[in-house]
Known about the structure:
The radius of gyration is 18 Å and the shape is globular. It has one domain (8-300): Inosine-uridine Nucleoside N-ribohydrolase, Chain A. The protein has an 8-stranded mixed beta sheet. It has a two-stranded antiparallel ribbon with strand order 7-8. The protein is built from 11 helices and 12 strands. Helices cover 35% and strands 16% of the residues. The longest helix is centred in the first third of the chain and has 18 residues, at 68-85. The protein has helices at 8-14, 35-44, 68-85, 112-122, 138-146, 172-176, 178-186, 207-213, 219-230, 245-252, 290-300; strands spanning 22-28, 50-57, 94-95, 129-133, 154-159, 191-194, 204-205, 240-241, 259-263, 266-267, 273-274, 281-285.
Amino acid sequence: MQxxxxxxEKLLARLEPPKGKIRMVLxxxxxxxxxxxxxxxYALRNPDRLQVEAVYAAPFSNERSSxxxxxxxxxxxxxxxxxxxxxxxxxxxxxxxxxxxxxxxxTPVESEAAEDLVRKAMSGSDEPLYVTAIGAITNxxxxxxxxxxxxxxxVVVWLGGHPWYWPDTKEFNLAxxxxxxxxxxxxxxxxxxxxxxxxxxxxxxxxxxxxxxYPKMDAVGKYLVDSFKxxxxxxxxxxxxxxxxxxxxxxxNPDWAPSVLIHSPVLTDQVTWSFDPxxxxxxxxxxxxxxAIFKDLLLKLCDK
Length: 304
């Protein structure tokens, strides 16, 4: 399959840290854990920086769902619940995503989310639409396959995979849909990858820290903290990653998420990274300023 090829100059320009107000959509497997809820609220609580134009429910399959279709449906319902708590209208704003993972390398899964992403990417100004993905990247890959020209009009920011130096990249978001992940790394779309182990795994918090700020939080903040506490029955010496806020933090302030240019890695059949210096560039976030990010997040969860 042929994809539009951005010149190296244009690709590098698109991979520059974003400036000003950003158009974005959020693709999220919201019911999978508790961190997606934090990420969604964090994005919506930054209206001066982020113009969130839509929220897409992503598929997932683990002990919290019976399969990708069920995971997507539960994520969709969780998005609606969260927006209702924020007194936001979800009509025409939240879209159901894929009910299955890509069945083959170049076979898209059509969905409301993928169709809406194509519409939004192909309309609007010349400024890129930032596609912020924090789950399996099925919806995004499907949209690219349905309309490859969106490669010229979007920047994908994805929490997925492990760093290039990790022994494997069998991370939950990536490993669920290897076809979709491989397509995103191969097709030439401007891509900012936020790896998990050693990078997003740095975004830890715990009950004592959240309890310290709990009295000052609004109802939505308290709901998130209560969900956090309910994730484990034993809070002794326990901390939990809130991985997904990393992708939002990169857009809010790229200085908190420094990145480097690398040649897009090759995703092997063994779900490891291989390398070819002739390939196009992507950006990889290599560190996160945990304290700055959590300070900003917690302030956004407090009553004004």
